[in-house]
Amino acid sequence: MQTIQAQTLTNYVQKLFAAAGAPASHAERVANSLVSANLAGHDSHGVIRTVQYLNNIKDGMLDPHATPAIVRETGVVTM
Fold first, then answer.
1. Residue 54 burial (CB count, 10 A)
2. Domain segments of the chain: what residues?
3. What CATH architecture does domain 1-79 belong to?
4. Quick one: which of 20, 40, 43, 45 has the most CB atoms within 10 Å?
5. Do 42 and 5 touch, CB atoms closer than 8 A?
């Protein structure tokens, strides 16, 4: 199996999301999150999701320009 350095993978994933229309800061944040999930051993939540997310952007199911906002917060939950 080929080994890819985390930063190399992060840069690649970031470029994919930027090419799909995400602002640079969003693309960087998503790429870091996906690669970090893999590094933490949560492969099902890592870069394996990249194709799904890119397809969702292409199909209009995800807005690459969207910015999260807190709409409700309790002691244990933030929505």
1. 19
2. 1-79
3. Orthogonal Bundle (1.10)
4. 20
5. no
Residue identified by tokens 């929505």 is: 79
**What pTM was computed for the model?**
0.87
Residue type, position 45, single letter: H
Measured in degrees and rounded to the nearest 5, phi and psi for residue 78 equal -125, 130
Closest CA to 22 of 48, 56, 57: 57
Q: Residue 77: what are its φ and ψ, rounded to 5°?
A: -135, 140
Helix (H) / strand (E) element for 71: namely none
Give the CA-trace dihedral at 54, 32, 38, 7, to 10 degrees: 110
pLDDT band of residue 77 (cuts 50, 70, 90) is confident
Spatial distance between the Cα atoms of 20 and 44, rounded to a whole number of angstroms: 22
Q: Which residues contact 58 (CB under 8 A, 6 or more apart)?
A: 20
